[in-house]
Amino acid sequence: MSNLLVIVFISLGMFFFFVGTIGILRFPDALTRAHSAAKADTLGALLSLTGLVIYNGFDISNIKILMVIIFLWTTNPTATHIIARSIINEKKTAGESNDIV
Amino acid sequence: MKKYIVVSILAIFFILFTEKISLINIILAVIVSSLVYSINHYELKELKLFRLKMIPLWFKYILILIKEIFVANMQVAKIALSKNMRIDPIIIVYESSLKGDFLLTILANSITLTPGTMSVDLVENIFSIHCLNGYYADNLKENIFEKILLQIEGVLHE
Prior knowledge:
Number of domains of chain A: 1
Strand content of chain A: under 5%
Number of helices of chain B: 6
Number of helices of chain A: 3
Oligomer: heterodimer
Number of strands of chain A: 0
Shape of chain B: elongated
Radius of gyration of chain A: 17 Å
Largest sheet of chain B: 3 strands, antiparallel
Shape of chain A: elongated
């Protein structure tokens, strides 16, 4: 039973990583690609790591996995923010910032 | 007081990462944490935000955030796998009424994790937000995250 849950969680996690990667390849420009990279990773990591927690059984090392989730959820948007800002600054210096409403 | 809080937090981390609860390990944790405390400089301004009164608000915030992350991922999956992508990206300017830097950072990160929006720049309390479609910008107007954070800030200044 628990193996089944592990398979379901990790497969769903892999699905979201997969979709995120497809998004990075398919979206038209750098800023929209950053969207895909920021979102898919968070849920993918949550589901995969939850699968690992169930597989591991319940002991103290699960807290470490929980910590990995928390750090990923705080660092991932921050990194995306930096990437997006550098793209915007690049556009501003190139004089293409007309799309800012 | 400040010293005991910092040392105990560091010691708990040490014990968690070594995965062993024995007397010698706890003594070692306290020694190492005190050493780390003595060579680093800590400010505990943000600790006020996690007082007992605010725990229910943070709990609510995290639950809503998880729900929004699920929605955001479904939506990215839908767009990434759709045949012809209907997106029309715009950048909007959004002024927040929050004041604290820490809460503004949390709000910026939450905006990035919610569907269709991504915070690009933050000057003082004015966000530049990149939206995949125009209608996501309308959702920002009644931003539930900002409401909860404003409540937290309100409790802080009581």
